[in-house]
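Format notes (please read before filing issues)

Several people have asked whether sequences and structure tokens are stored in separate files. They are not. Every record keeps both together, in the order shown below: the sequence lines, then the token lines. Line labels are part of the format and must not be stripped during preprocessing.
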Amino acid sequence: MATAASSKGALVERTATQQVVVDVAGINRREFLYYIWGASIVMLLGESAVGLIWYLLPRFKEGEFGGEFVFGSDAIPEVDAKPTRVPEGRMWLSNSSEGFVALYAVCTHLGCLPGWSDNNHRFECPCHGSKYRIAGEWIEGPAPRGLDAYEFTIFFTDGSQASSNGSRDPIQLNGRTIERVVVNSGKRILGPPHGA
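Then the structure lines:
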């Protein structure tokens, strides 16, 4: 019996020692597994969130639709001359007596691609007949507004620059010599409504 008692006492001591070790560590097996499981879930959700953000944020290269396009002075048409079409950027570079503007080359009615008519000196949509002036203002047709435009910055040879800054209004060149024009095809400005 003493042996049993001593073995029982040793068992109790061992249990007490294990309990002290557990108390010192402050965690048992169930809690440890719970924390590991929670950390795994947090890591999985974090990786999923980072992957989703990486997928949703656009990453456009220069010269690709949605990114920036850089044009030299040779790409800018003369005042009131035929606008320059840039199919990669879905745009028209237009320079009228009102000023320079980079137009989004898609009709505001149903998304057809209006072309330039040399005979009438205007943009005409082949689908439903909407017509636009050289600076993109609506003339007639079912389109709800004028052509949309892109934000752009003009850099002049004298070191100055002019930016559209979210405005749809053409920028006057005032006889200054253009070094380059940077058009951001990722930032579109809505065209003016009828009568504006």
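For reference, the curators noted about this record: Residues 2-56 form one domain. Residues 1-13, 20-24 have pLDDT under 50 and may be disordered.
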